[in-house]
Amino acid sequence: MSADNEQQYWLNKDGYNYTEHRYKYSLLEDESLIQQEKREMQLFAMLKPKFGVDGGQYFVLLGEDLQSGICGFGETLILAIRDFNEQFHKKANHTTNWITK
User: Fold this and answer.
1) How far apart, in Å, are the Cα atoms of 59 and each of 62, 69, 95?
2) Pairing, β 57-62 against β 50-54
3) 5, 60, 62, 81: which one has the fewest Cβ atoms less than 10 Å from its Cβ?
4) Would you say residue 5 has pLDDT above 90?
5) Are residues 79 and 58 in contact, defined by beta-carbon separation less than 8 angstroms?
């Protein structure tokens, strides 16, 4: 069984037409994904961190170095930006929690 046939088997094994469902809601999902991408890029665009490729991975760095800055890594630039955003928010939440204690 090919990979495509196997995927269709598992998607339709319970009798529900997932293909039709995905088509009906694809426009809403596309709009949601576009909005998510915009939100993810806003922080990157606002802070203007350094970015590049090192050792076959993309990186996004805010600060002078990995030890003192905030850095994200990924196989693509967008994955590195997502990781950077996650690391940024973790550090922001940690700092806020420390201040409010």
Assistant:
1) 10, 12, 23
2) antiparallel
3) 5
4) no
5) yes
